[in-house]
Design goal:
mainly alpha, 5 helices, 60% helix
Length: 156
């Protein structure tokens, strides 16, 4: 869009002109405890959650989903690395698919509760990840590929 180009151009011109050189806090780390961007009606609730070691529900759901996906991926890699027969593979991959279905339900719930579209996670394609893990086991050791991050392209 033309306005995006205009904004980028104006920022570049301002940087070149040194307009950002004398800003307060220049050269110091950002204060990540600043919650001025949090709406007033949520600020106290977020502070209480944070000080008690908790997070908003959608973040906890997201963390649970990613931890479950990591565990399920490791379990499937272990099954493949033990050079299992077809029946064992089918059982292990079926368990993996069931676990990824649960992960996707957690992701859906987290996404519904999330405060921004930018913070939402995509769903995972269990069949594609399982196939990728099986192919990877035939070409590399299980230790070379850890966790769902190695399967990021297999999201749907």
């Amino acid at each position: 869009m033309a306005w995006e180009w205009l904004v980028e151009r104006r920022l570049k011109d301002a940087i070149e002109a040194g307009m950002f050189e004398d800003l307060p806090g220049r050269g110091r780390p950002l204060d990540l405890k600043d919650d001025s961007s949090v709406p007033d009606e949520w600020r106290l609730a977020f502070r209480l959650l944070k000080s008690s070691g908790h997070a908003p529900v959608w973040i906890e759901l997201r963390q649970e989903a990613l931890a479950r996906l990591e565990t399920a991926s490791q379990d499937l890699r272990r099954a493949v690395s033990s050079e299992c027969d077809q029946t064992t593979w089918l059982r292990a991959s079926a368990r993996f698919v069931e676990e990824v279905e649960l992960v996707n339900r957690l992701i859906d719930e987290a996404n519904l509760r999330s405060s921004s579209l930018l913070l939402q996670l995509p769903r995972y394609d269990a069949e594609r990840i399982a196939a990728s893990i099986r192919r990877g086991a035939s070409t590399s050791s299980p230790a070379t590929s850890t966790g769902p991050s190695a399967s990021a392209p297999d999201r749907t």
